[in-house]
Batch of 3 targets.
Target 1
Amino acid sequence: MVLGIASRVFAKIFGIAGFLLALIGGALIGYSALTVGGLSVSSMVFRGIEALLGFGAIVAGIMMYTGPMRFGGMLAVLGGIILLVLTSFATSAILVFAGGILGIIGAAVKPAWWKFWKR
């Protein structure tokens, strides 16, 4: 009984922490992509891709918190890896990646869905 409650609490904590990290990282990526100058076509395309990945990180964080935590975590990890390569390991990309890892860990700790409906 106590272990079941503790595992649900840990899953919620990991989900909230992953959501917050992905949200903050995605917002910082989007902000930096939209405020940095550069009028060349390649720079604008690069910044557009960064802005879309930042928005995707925010959506993945929301998915971790409200919906399928494992899928949201995998999306955040995938977006974080791409952002790590594109931004040369910027802090915001590390936040998105870490949020995805926490989402995957939270999904592994969370009990299976059918255990919730057994009672």
Target 2
Amino acid sequence: TPIGDDTYHSKNSSDNLLKKRRLYKEQSPLIEWKLIKELGDGAFGKVYQAFNEQRKEHAAAKIIEDCTDDELPEHTIEIDILSECNHQNIIGFYDSYYHEKKLYIFLEYCTYGAVDNIMTTLEHGLDEKQICFIGYEILEALDYLHTHQFVIHRDVKASNILLTQTGQVKLADFGVSAKNSYQDQKRNEYIGTVY
């Protein structure tokens, strides 16, 4: 059973792929989604490339294992934020499931992955033009988040900036983000990645 609405969500008028759904319980996502290969892992879980045969779409499946009912609310902030976002530079949200103590979040698949991995593969940094392009696109995403959603990302870094097959820049990983009540609300916590 879905929690929340199941309304249409689109990045733009020509994109009919993304659906706005909340959290499904008591249903295995592996009925609809096939996990293809592991893409990476982080502090909260692993990410897999997944495919939905019925919809004919690929996704990145973020899986958080051993997630108790008590821990669920702290992990669903990402679902809440992404299901309300509608911007070309923010990772798209497909589905989420909580099944057998695992939280599954299915997101837009970005073929080229994270900017930090791209730089490692190329064995050099980005040139000034590339940095300006990526920076501008991320600023567009942040402006949308701050102005329209009252969201503070709190962990903007190269590993959370992804590139699609067409070169579209996407801001991802909203796991430590905060949703404010109003636009200029201040936060006192220091959260994110320390270098």
Target 3
Amino acid sequence: MLGWISHVPNRLTRAAYKQVAYGADYRVCFSWIHLLDRAHLRNSGLGFHLVKGYSAASGSFNLQSKRFLSVEDKNDREYINARCTTISPPNQIGQSGANNGTFIRSLFSNLLIETTHKVSKVHLCHENGIQPRDLRSLDTDMHDLPASILVRSQSILFCTPNIRAIIKADKLVVLESSETDSEFGTDSETSTTVQNVVSDIQNFGSRAHASQVNDSAAPFEFIVLESLLSQEINHLSQTSSELTNRVNTLLSSMSSQDVISTAHMQEMIEVKDANEIFLRAATSVKDAISEVLSEPDDMRRMYLTGISAGRLREYGDDDEVELLLETYLKYSTSLTLTASRNIQRLNSASQHLTLLLSSTRNRLLHLEIRLEIAMLAMSAGALPAAIFGMNLTNHLEEHPWAFWAAAVGIGMIAFVATQIGRYGLRKARRVKMEQAGLLAGSKHRISNLPHHP
């Protein structure tokens, strides 16, 4: 923009961009350039001046910021920040005779486990036939992602609150947070999750081989899928049992005490929050399984072994995977019902506690009102006493019954004031109850109005 010539002051400052070879530690700063002898500005572009260790002189300022792109940022962009464990059988499942009995026996007795701490994202996508956007569901650093079971052309993406994995026809890739490395002694050790998954694969595979004939043995991907679902459901079941025990202990402790302490209230809030978090996790797993069951195309494409051999199932020919998913859908539904029941029990206890506090507050208010009525009666009785207490001549002090008459009169005045206060209290309570009854009756009448189309 060249129209700024007449609007630029003599001491205008601008930032100029200049790339200086100061190594990797480039920092951004803006420097004032005093244009004492320049009368106009040919280019209004604002750039950056890269310096290292620049100290501001008079008439200049230095604003440092972060590096443009550090080595760690590049690694995060090119490599996945997770510990990848590959579990595969000794033979490749896509070869001929993959489902015979000899393969099954060798498969579940000699699983190969390989752990990698640095995997390229591009290599992971190309090797497993997934898109880069699918890596978001496999990100182990994001713990609040909803559960999902995504079916791709060559793999199945398994994402739950506790397990992130890629299922293929010939292997399983388990992704774990890199923080798990610090929980174990050496990098060669496998995590507890991987050990449990391997154990389940061996158990489920042996059971499938024993219960089915060789020609209809369960494919490797379904055995792995069942192992992952079993691990997730087991983890959720343990969490559900712990939360249920906490709820039972808390409610029994509250019911056995006459006074509810602040610690009990704080514990109730914490337990309720934990149950709500667990309910979201269990509901997420249930919804992920339900979503796959509602897509027949996804279920028939989950037969990765058949697809690798060039055999795609027909619509409706997916009873095996449907029965598998229905089983764990039942378990996840049971967990969500348990969490909902615990939350309902806590809500009922909270409402009961609220009613108790309201009743106690009402009793205190009633006592305060009674004390106010008593003070009103005493004040009404003190008024005649104050009148007689004035040193004025009234000739009543000479009467033999004057004292008793004054005492009885003061008592009657106090009694009348008390009755007036009690009558006002009863009338106010009656009006409040009538208002509540009218409000409830109006709601009932509105709800019973006929609806005309």
